[in-house]
């Protein structure tokens, strides 16, 4: 209910909404190995980019946690503000300890514009129009763009990770009896800069 004001499961046609659920489930499935893992295993670093606005707390790691594997201190800070929990920056482990906060973080990321990127929600519901620079970069509306928004390093290359996301999306579209639509991979999309 907290995300209805942002248009979640309200915007777009019934077909758009069904595709959006398939997309979200595909990313959840991919990021958590079928909702098996709550956080990234063996993170290579603490994902901390210190700044006065997004300070890193001693001994804390801002690695991927939750259904969409939220990472980096700045995302934890903005997410905490967005879901009404200002303690996420100082207690990032809450994302793997509290399932309500974990799923709120995922929906926050999904429904919120990320820096120079549109929200995944606006892309999947037809509420985003690409700029000429997006068209030149082959960033067009569809599931493939959500991969670019979530993890652009999987795009503009042949990527097993991106291919896995696409297969999961196709599976959920089939289960939900909805056409996957166009632009479902990001193989030829330039990542956002």
From TrEMBL:
GO BP term, example: carbohydrate metabolic process
Disulphide-bridged cysteine pairs: 48-56, 155-186
Xref: SUPFAM superfamilies: Lysozyme-like (SSF53955)
Protein's UniProt keywords contain Disulfide bond: yes
CDD domains, alphabetized: chitinase_GH19 (cd00325)
InterPro entries per the UniProt record, alphabetical: Glyco_hydro_19, Glyco_hydro_19_cat, Lysozyme-like_dom_sf
GO molecular-function terms, A-Z: chitinase activity
Pfam families xrefs: Glyco_hydro_19 (PF00182)
Keyword Calcium attributed: no
Keywords, alphabetical: Disulfide bond, Plant defense
Domain Glycoside hydrolase family 19 catalytic: residue ranges: 7-186
PANTHER family (UniProt xref): CHITINASE 12 (PTHR22595:SF79), CHITINASE-RELATED (PTHR22595)
Name under which the protein is recorded: Glycoside hydrolase family 19 catalytic domain-containing protein
